[in-house]
Amino acid sequence: SRSVLCVRAFSRTYATATSPHALVFIEHRHGVIDSGSLSALTAAEQLGGQVSGLVVGGPDHVHSVVDKVKMLKGITSVLHSTSPQYVEPLPETLSPLFEKLLSNSSPFTHVVSATSSTAKSLLPRVAAKLDVPAVSDVTSLEHDPATGSTTFTRPIYAGNAIATVRAPGSVAIKFFTVRGTAFAAAASQEGSNAEVKAVDAVEVSDSPTQHLKTTITKSDRPDLGVASRVVSGGRALKNAETFASTLYPLADALGAAVGASRAAVDAGYADNSLQVGQTGKVVAPELYMALGISGAIQHLAGMKDSKLIVAVNKDPDAPIFQVADVGLVADLFDVVPELVEKLKK
Ligand code: FAD
């Protein structure tokens, strides 16, 4: 069972309690807002103050994203900045823009983003430059307007303990990243009073890092990170061919995304992007099917918050059965084809 760890945190002092005003970094790809950013918005709204979205990118997509962001529930203003350097943003090219926005006259008390690859390198960089704390992978928060302190919970030790950390009111700007599965996605609403403001880009001429190319894994199946159903396979699937021929028909019959254990990924049965767990993706779908997965603690860290967990395993003592709502001790190569036939009917 989970234990709760309380950690007193942060002692930097130079501000008094003010009404919260969050700056939320809104990530998007080709005009589509990342679902993690929508969860970050919901978390920011829970601070109880103003919420500004920040959209950066090239001229092709920024304005269409801004139009979508200003319609999101909870948004009070949208800042946007356009530069060729922001088409594929790097921490080195984006951090000067954040530093400008967070300079002495800044109204912002919190900087919020999804726990994404970009934000994981960007936010700590900016926080370190400003010498303020950053809290990552937050699953809940509570802001105290009287003291200006914000208390966060975040999973540690692969989700086996929950740390409670507090950034006191004396910290001028609190940075945090949000675990997407812990906060609902902000919804769109009719009508918007949100103010929209352009911010000049801060061009970086001597970035030590340059973006060369992005290779996106293409799939006709739902995105693993946001799918409501996930069918995952483990080492038991034997090889890449049987992984595909066994799991994909079931995923297709259920309209599910495909996931994999690290053993299956390391053995080359499935792409890296499908790994679920501590060092893979964290998912919390309505239905998670674990097929031929033992249920190692590092795998559970990525799926145990799923609403309904179904496990099929030959070993009645497999640890996956300790978290499963429905468990079947059976050979998956018998069960899965039968299930697919029944689903098709
Ligand atoms: P196994 O543990 O080998 O289990 C295979 C299971 O299949 C067994 O339970 C077996 O009974 C069952 N089985 C065999 N044949 C059949 C059949 N025909 N029908 C039904 N059942 C069958 N793992 C992750 O998944 N995600 C991570 O992010 C991750 N991160 C890690 C990080 C670190 C630092 C470390 C040290 C490990 C990490 N791991 C991760 C690895 C993890 O510890 C396990 O090794 C891995 O999850 C095991 O994968 P598996 O369950 O597919 O394989």
TrEMBL record:
A molecular function GO annotation: electron transfer activity
Cellular component GO terms held in the UniProt record: mitochondrial matrix
The record's free-text note on cofactor binding: Binds 1 FAD per dimer.
Domain Electron transfer flavoprotein alpha/beta-subunit N-terminal: 22-211
Subunit-level organization: Heterodimer of an alpha and a beta subunit.
Transmembrane regions listed in the UniProt entry: none
Entry-linked Pfam families: ETF, ETF_alpha
InterPro entries: DHS-like_NAD/FAD-binding_dom, ETF_a/b_N, ETF_a/FixB, ETF_alpha_N, ETF_asu_C, ETF_asu_C_CS, Rossmann-like_a/b/a_fold
Name recorded for this polypeptide: Probable electron transfer flavoprotein subunit alpha
Keywords: Electron transport, FAD, Flavoprotein, Mitochondrion, Transit peptide, Transport
Amino acids binding FAD: 235, 261-262, 275-279, 292-299, 313
Cofactor: FAD
Organism expressing this protein natively: Crucibulum laeve
Lyase recorded as keyword: no
GO BP terms, alphabetized: fatty acid beta-oxidation using acyl-CoA dehydrogenase
Membership in a protein family: Belongs to the ETF alpha-subunit/FixB family.
Job description of the protein: The electron transfer flavoprotein serves as a specific electron acceptor for several dehydrogenases, including five acyl-CoA dehydrogenases, glutaryl-CoA and sarcosine dehydrogenase. It transfers the electrons to the main mitochondrial respiratory chain via ETF-ubiquinone oxidoreductase (ETF dehydrogenase).
Record's subcellular location: Mitochondrion matrix
